[in-house]
Specification:
Layout (H helix, E strand, L loop, with lengths): L1 H4 L10 H10 L2 E10 L10 E9 L10 H14 L6 E11 L7
Antiparallel strand pairs: 1-2, 1-3
């Protein structure tokens, strides 16, 4: 799994204050990459979150239809194709998160 994420960008420790500010003052879109494991047909596989990230709402008005989101999902699906023996499905879910007060 680590090799899947090696080309992804994460918030570094020096940007934590900015991330907290965004959570408390801006609406965000939460993008989740969800997978289901392969298994016996009689045992259903519950979806598992592989990774998630947020984008300021005003920078992602199209949600999963944004060109960058479609490219990202296509890249993840091409990597997922190498692991079909383990994973049944891979999909992107998008939800909104509205500003909230955060107590530190």
């Amino acid at each position: 799994m680590a090799s899947w994420l090696s080309s992804s960008v994460f918030v570094g420790i020096d940007h934590i204050a900015d991330a907290i500010y965004n959570l408390s003052t801006k609406s965000l879109r939460i993008f989740r990459i969800v997978v289901s494991r392969n298994g016996p047909p009689n045992k259903g596989s519950l979806p598992e979150e592989l990774m998630s990230f947020s984008v300021p709402y005003d920078l992602s008005m199209g949600g999963s239809k944004e060109p960058w989101a479609e490219i990202f999902l296509a890249k993840m699906q091409s990597k997922w194709g190498k692991c079909k023996q383990t994973w049944r499905t891979l999909k992107m879910e998008v939800s909104e998160c509205f500003p909230q007060a955060i107590a530190l």
